Amino acid sequence: MKIRTAVKIRTAAVGVLLLTTAACGTSVQDASTPAAAIATVDNCGRTLEFGSVPERVVSLSPSQTELLVQLGAADAMVGQAQTDTSPLSADVAERVADVPVLSTDSPPGREVLLEVAPDFVVAPTEYEFTAEQGFASIDQLRQAGANAYVATGGCAERRTTATVDDLFTDITDLGIVFDERDRATELVEDGRRRLDAVAADGADRPARTVAQVYVEGTSLSVIGAGVEADIVARAGGENVFRPDESMFDSFFSATVGPEELAARNPDALVFAVSGDAHREATLAYLRATFPDMTAVQENRLIAVPGADMFPGTLGNIGAVETIARGIG
């Protein structure tokens, strides 16, 4: 794919008082601020300063690509990564069809990312910046002149306690970064309206127990914490794996044996998939392994696109809606 030669350049208005946003940990500075830092956002304990709207943007996950396009950043993108982990919606895929793919199933290597000379890199978690894995670290990107933004729910200290509401912090932050505050406000208001509708629809629905699983071959993991677990809760499900269990002390998911899941006998099974083939393989595994489970017997097997479960994506709201329908 060819690298775009044209990027959309937008400049922030000078001499206008910039209001402090209501999002927790986010602020913009007034007109007296030097041009070197006309806006700031706090992210994962770091303060990011911006002298202008980013012009060379890299998204390290399809989940972040969706949000960036919604905030008008498509023309500024010079790279996208982990593209095979989940398909983009048709309209978004068309908008980024010419954006170079830097990696398909894992974060791009350090040299690959730095080669496109980004000035802003957006990721779902801090893992994408692990130097020990050969990825560009946040410090290395800073030295190269690029800011790195991690979805709020993907910050290391918040990974096991994240909620769907963290998405609204990300929308507000990125709206400031790209000078798209009005659009960000629209997205936040729409998201909250959709979540409220799910809650209202489920008010009189019978309670359902749910297990959220991830299947890769014959490896079985369960999820009991993080934004993934909050998505299930917002959909009205009662997770049979609780965040206070010791298996989730340091991470939001844990590998278990089939016997452990069978013993909890959930009414519904939620599972993330990377595409149609993964969906069919997971369904086959669940039906063959747990034929007597209530979820299988009553066919409450709910597939959700994997990217919709990552921190900091508009898909979080769609996942809540999908799961609510499935367990209803």
Automatic annotation (TrEMBL):
Superkingdom field: Bacteria
Pfam family, one: Peripla_BP_2
Segments crossing the lipid bilayer: none
Ranges of residues in domain Fe/B12 periplasmic-binding: 56-328
Family statement: Belongs to the bacterial solute-binding protein 8 family.
Signal peptide (from-to): 1-25
Keyword rRNA processing among record annotations: no
This protein's UniProt keywords: Signal
Organism, scientific name: Rhodococcus triatomae
Taxonomic placement: Bacteria, Bacillati, Actinomycetota, Actinomycetes, Mycobacteriales
S-adenosyl-L-methionine listed as a keyword: no
Name of the protein in question: Iron complex transport system substrate-binding protein
